[in-house]
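Final report, Chapter 2: Outcomes

The project's central promise was a pipeline that accepts a single protein chain and returns its three-dimensional structure in a standardized token representation, suitable for archiving and comparison. That pipeline is now operational. To close this chapter, we reproduce one record exactly as it appears in the project archive, with the input sequence first and the structure output second.
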Amino acid sequence: MSETRQYDKCPTCGRWAWLDKHTCPPPWECYDPDNSEPDYADTLYGYDGREVAELYFEQNDSEYDYPDEMTVCVRPSGSDAAWEKYEVEAEAVRQYNATKVE
């Protein structure tokens, strides 16, 4: 009997993957220094600081009235490493919709 494979969102890291073969990326602590403090950092999963900073902004930009940029500080979870600071920018993407006119 073959085992059933499940493609789903990982409950730990939030990535879509075949869960039977999935390994989460490393955890990182991250926060917005303009609106929070290191003691209240969130945990996100990614392969490097840049990826995690972008993900943090993506998940939090609606809480800040859709800014065009945000400063995000990140470091590997559970470490005493210095915080890496990133300036993350967002841009609107044009979308085109056609409506048939009678």
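Archive annotation: The mean pLDDT is 91.
This record, like all others produced under the grant, will remain available to the consortium after the project formally closes.
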